Each structure stands twice: as C-alpha cells, then as structure tokens.
Amino acid sequence: MDDERSKPWGWTVSQREIIESLRAAPLLARLEPAQLERVAARTTRLTLAAEQSLFLQGDAAERFFLVCAGQMQLYRLAPDGARKVIEIVSPGQTFAEALMFLNRPSYPVCASALAPTELIAIDAADFAAMLRESVDTCFLLLGALSQRLRGLIGEIDHLTLHTASGRLARYLLERLPPERRALRLEVPKGVLASRLSIQPETLSRALRQFVDAGVIALEGRHVTLLDRPRLVELAALEPGLGPE
Predict the structure, then answer these.
(1) How many CB atoms lie within 10 A of CB 34?
(2) pTM
(3) Alpha-carbon Rg for the chain in angstroms
(4) What are the residue boundaries of the Cyclic nucleotide-binding domain, all occurrences included (predicted)?
C-alpha cells in the first residue's frame, strides 16, 4: 500500500480512541480488553480521497478494515469494465475479515472510497493468531460472521425475487426507522442502482413513482417519508407495484 494512503489522519488519534473505534464495531465488540489492545497496537490508520482505490480484485488479502468515517464501495469488474457494486460499507462496519480463515487469500472484489474516508487496517495474520489462542473468541467471531451471511442470503433473495420498486422501498425503510422521516441518499444514484441490481434509469423511474404516489418527497438527494404504510406495502411487493 502506497505512502499516500498510509499517511496519518488529519487529527491526532490516541490508542484509546482506536480501541473505542474497534469496540464500537459489532464484529469486534465482544473482544476482551487485552485483545482489543493487542489489535489496536497492530493497526494502520489510512485516509483515502473520494474515488481513491484501496485494493483491487486479486490483491493479496493481508489486512481487513474498519470504516471510521466516510464510505467505501466493494465491487467487481465485468469484462467490459462495468462495475457491479456488491456492498456499500459505512462507519462502524468492517469488511474483508472472513478472508483471514483462508490459506493465502486474495480479495475477491475491488474497494474504493465513495467520499473522503478514514479507515483502520487490521493485520489479518496477527488477528487469526489471536483467534487460535482463544476458542471462545473464535466462536464469537464465527457467530457474527454467520449472522452477516444470513443477512446476505436474505438480501440475495430480495434482489432476485422482487421488483425494482420493492428493492428501493426496502432500501429506504432500512434507513428510515420509525423515529425518522428524512434521510440523505449518501451514494450517487449510479452506485445505488448497481447496488440494487437495477439500471439507473429504472431507479429514477421508481423514485418518481414514489413521489407521484405521495409516498416520499424528493429534493436532490434529500428524501422525506410521507406515507410509511404505503412504503411498507411496496417493500412487501404486492403484485403490480412499480417498474421492473
């Protein structure tokens, strides 16, 4: 990894702050204090500019990552160079950690920043060695990874069996819990469309349909929820709702 990506953050980050960032990540939250200190001591702090690459598909997977600020996209490249966005990673989330269980792993996707982003890079070999020393910790981590896998299977089901409107409705509902009525779409529409496995023009039509139906109000990237029950219906995909 080049020096530009590995330069210090723009603010002073203490060891304690690194530990707190690690503890806040669901995957790492159950580590013992001594384990958190060990992990923190072997981290590298990275900063990426918007659209800057972190790694490419096929690169040796020597580290996994925690997003502290900003946003990352994980994607695969088609033979024609088109990107298929697999996952959007937000602050508090980790990625590429499951690869530590493989022999001589390589990253199966590319990763780049969607916005200026700060990351903590964690040495995968050292983390795996720590897991071998603690069966309990290993099982806790495997449990967390299994839960994520179940979520991904559910997401695949949703993307393959539901309409474009249903996919968009679910995406919005996941980001609009009952106490919230507004959000800002943090990713470009092209990236969001790829993430939902639809064409950008289909996403635009679905958004316009929601606006025309009085489900949401849309101003630029700002979405205001007007009719939650109707959005729930759209997410449940009643027949005939919305474009394919």
Answers:
(1) 9
(2) 0.71
(3) 20
(4) 27-131
Q: What gap in Å lies between CA 52 and CA 72, rounded to an integer? A: 10
The domains located in the chain, with CATH, are 3-159 (2.60.120.10), 162-236 (1.10.10.10)
**Which residue, among 184, 200, 166, 65, has the nearest Cα to 124 in the 3D structure?**
65
Look-up: residue for tokens 């530990």? 19
Counting as low any pLDDT under 70, the low residues of the chain are: 1-13, 151-161, 237-244
d(CA 1, CA 68): 19
Contact between 79 and 89 under an 8 Å Cβ cutoff? The reply is no
User: CB of 127 within 8 A of CB of 68?
Assistant: no
The pLDDT score that the predictor gives to residue 213 is 94
3-state SS string for 14-26: CHHHHHHHHHHCC
Could you give the CA distance from residue 21 to residue 28 in angstroms, rounded to a whole number? Answer: 9
State the chain's maximal CA–CA distance in angstroms: 58
- Residue 15 has which token pair? 């060891």
Inter-axis angle of helices 33-41 and 124-132, nearest 10: 150
The predicted pLDDT at position 9 comes to 39
